[in-house]
């Protein structure tokens, strides 16, 4: 009986010393595996998260691997390292670029400290990107003159947008337009003066066949055409004034130039010629002859003077 107790005690001690190397490496306990794995997925952005492993005065790194549907069915021993976490210090990993198909993905994480590694922790339920949460898109509704314009946020190449817009009045018809990408202004409609228009939008992801809820409607109002009408009236009046003033000014300037260059002189009546030039010449000759025949001598003039 004593022999059996000694053998049992020796066996227990042997097992204890045999397990010490498994529990301790260089005086440090084996790293615990990360816990509480989960995936937060919003608008096709997938983030794998876990509880951090705490080791005092040490920096822990993490390694992430995934396994697609084909690998899990036909090559279960093959795991693919994540392209974005090789390795990472953060207790999270953006696996968006790794999830390329709408199929279940297995995900696992382990901790790394120097040459030590923890065991793998695997996500309890495979992740499928069709479970992502789609939110209404952020948008900016503006007016460019009489044009209704919308600018949607850019959520990536997989997103399309369904835009609904209508004139804000009872019984107005709602129009729908598909916008293929965000990040740039899109013209929706030419608005009527003085009317208000409202717009709302939702996202659509063809890869998963799902769409978000509609965003809150945003409305804009275009002003009346009071200023353009006043400008048009002013331009018309100005044009009519030009049509009247310009010809009148040209006529007046012509009169002034004509008077300055070729003035009209009015002759007195004594200088006006009433008869023909030939008759006038003949009259002048007769008068000269008469004067010549009646000339007095000098003696006769002297006597007449006395």
Description:
The protein has helices spanning 2-23, 69-74, 226-261, 277-293, 298-305, and strands spanning 24-25, 28-29, 35-42, 45-51, 61-67, 80-81, 92-94, 106-113, 116-117, 121-122, 139-144, 147-152, 159-167, 175-179, 185-190, 196-205, 210-211, 218-221. By secondary structure, the chain is of the alpha+beta class. The strands form five sheets. Strands 5, 6, 8, 9 and 10 form a five-stranded antiparallel beta sheet that branches. Strands 13, 14, 16, 17 and 18 form a five-stranded antiparallel beta sheet that branches. The relative contact order is 0.09. Mean pLDDT is 82; it is low at 12-28.
Question: Could you name the key traits of this structure?
Answer:
306 residues; alpha+beta; five-stranded antiparallel beta sheet; 5 helices; 29% helix; 30% strand; elongated
Q: State the separation between the terminal residues, measured CA to CA.
A: 213 Å
User: Structural class given helices, strands, pairing?
Assistant: alpha+beta
Strand content: 25-35%
Number of helices, counting only DSSP H or I runs of 4 residues or more: 5
Inertia-based shape: elongated
| Biggest pleated-sheet summary | 5 strands, antiparallel
How many runs of DSSP E, i.e. beta strands? 18
Whole-number average pLDDT?
82
| Oligomeric composition of the shown chains | single chain
Radius of gyration: 55 Å
Helix content: 25-40%
Q: In terms of per-residue confidence, which ranges show pLDDT below 50 for 5 or more consecutive residues? A: 12-28
SSE order: HEEEEEHEEEEEEEEEEEEEHHH
